[in-house]
User: What shape does this take?
Amino acid sequence: MAEQDFEAVVVSMLAADRRVRSVRLVGSRARGTATWCSDWDFKVESGEFETLAAAMPGLVAALAPIAQQWDRLSDQACYMLILRGPAKVDFIFNQRATHRPPWTVDAATLEGMNMHFWDWALWLCSKVARGDQGLVSAELRKLFEHLLEPLGALSSPHSLGEAIASYRDALVRQETRLGVRVDRALENEVSIVLRRLGL
Assistant: This one.
């Protein structure tokens, strides 16, 4: 699907809901400065955030997301999707959000941690592609604190490739300890972008 067509589909999908006042593309794709792997950011204005938030999984179902979750660390409420391709899509609402603490690892949270890690990694791919090493380094420290260290990693990664290797090792150890298995479909999809970056 062409970029303009995708933007129109997403905008019309959200705008059709009576609780949405407006929805528009923002960020690097709106400015025309996107990299080949930049995410799609849509600003959503609503006076009924709570009920709209509860409805988001149904509203975006036609996009067939392979991962969807609320951002745990954004200043504004942000509903994040990963679509096949892969493509990262963020819906940023006019609602303040409270940062969540680092993850606690158990059998019930491992799948959510996996979605969070690969969403974060896919977002960082665009920063690596742009050459924004300062931002990447800062985010890797945050990634360690909130995800890798709770999983049992011992040191903060110095590169996205190192973070991915650390995560994969830690995930296998936790799967063994907890007796659960996380589906690798999301990892396999994000790996399309990782391979293009040589990671």
